[in-house]
From TrEMBL:
<dbReference type="InterPro" id="IPR006059">
    <property type="entry name" value="SBP"/>
</dbReference>
<keyword id="KW-0472">Membrane</keyword>
<keyword id="KW-0449">Lipoprotein</keyword>
<keyword id="KW-0732">Signal</keyword>
<dbReference type="InterPro" id="IPR050490">
    <property type="entry name" value="Bact_solute-bd_prot1"/>
</dbReference>
<protein>
    <submittedName>
        <fullName>ABC-type glycerol-3-phosphate transport system substrate-binding protein</fullName>
    </submittedName>
</protein>
<dbReference type="Pfam" id="PF01547">
    <property type="entry name" value="SBP_bac_1"/>
</dbReference>
<keyword id="KW-1003">Cell membrane</keyword>
<keyword id="KW-0564">Palmitate</keyword>
<feature type="signal peptide">
    <location>
        <begin position="1"/>
        <end position="19"/>
    </location>
</feature>
Amino acid sequence: MLRRWISFALIVLMSAAILGTGCSDSKGSEAASAAGSTADSSDSSEKVLGVCYFSQMDTLNATVLSNFKRIHSDVNVKEKVLDPEDFDSFQLQFQAELAAGQGADVIFLPAWCLPNDYKLMRDGVLCDLSTLISEDEELKIENYNKTILDTGIYDGKRYIIPIDYCFSYFYTYKTVMGDLKLETSNWTWDDLLKAAKEYFNSSNGKYFLEPDFNFWDMKYSDKNSYVNYDKKTSNFNSEGFIKLLQTYKELLPYVCPNEAEQEETDSEERIKLSVLRTENYTGVVKNAQGVVKPFNEEPIFIPYPTLDGVSNVNAFATNIAAITSKCKYKEEAFDYIKILLSTTIQNDETFNAPVMKSVFEEQSKTFKPVSESKTSITNIFGKINSCTLGDGSVDEIIKAELPAFVSGNKTAEQTAKAIDEKVNAYLKE
């Protein structure tokens, strides 16, 4: 499930594999030197475009490639596939290839695969797509979700285009809730913590949250990034982030242990072990057309709380596309991205929420007749007013500090200060 890579893959610095070492050659493409560019290993008279994508997008990328070849039969596409098994400490090689102007021309990857999106934009490693977009007669940027797409803008230039996005939410069922009443329209993390404590005490120790509840979903539901990339400063040593840490730790006693769920063999009884289950939006197939309907009930969808009680939802970009500055054939590369933004590809069930407005609106009809309900998934969609691109390097710093905090060896204040100092140092590299 998506939240599992948010919890784990998001925080691993695996990225140097992306454009060279650690990427396997896709079927049908010629071998390229691991240290060299995917586009530089052929005859200089041949148009070669290096495309790097995630192995889980293999089928979808084959469709994109097929459409691309109809437009550009003269372009030899060299595919490089990033496989999860190759995620390791390749960052130095990755940075070296970028510095040498090598690697892929087109990047089509989950946002968390890149180690430091903002540094890639700031240092000119990625191409500014603004001119390509403005001069293109077919692509109309206004047809796409502005809130999501604008996360790829840095210093007034559009370097990255999110292809889809998701957000965290809770869900439950009337059978699970019983007589429990929750006011969640403008709730805060304090409200959730209070409800968890009261439920736990009144129900002889029944759990409030399922085992998959984690700090990363809390962090990415928070609209505050705590990093100012323009000024190269961080603000993790702040009241808001300290509060987020404290709340997470205080909620842990009310999270159902993994062992308890694993021991329960009946699926509906397993669901009953905790009041709220956590999930990331993963498209209409998963979120609206499930084969199994527990308790023969429609789920009740509940937005994540916020620190200030403002009823807003923060999304995060999942798959992104970009063109590297060294690319010789930028117009052809942009056509590849345009296919990713086309109606057919945006409607592919591989993606989470599509950035194309018309496709999203059509998919929303799938949620009828419950879409008008205050407990529907579309109600949460309507509250999205911010989006996070993410930074794997920052998350790695946070990940390293969390264990000492959770174990009680450090306070929330000490942890926030340590994270802030390390992130500030990282930003000044």
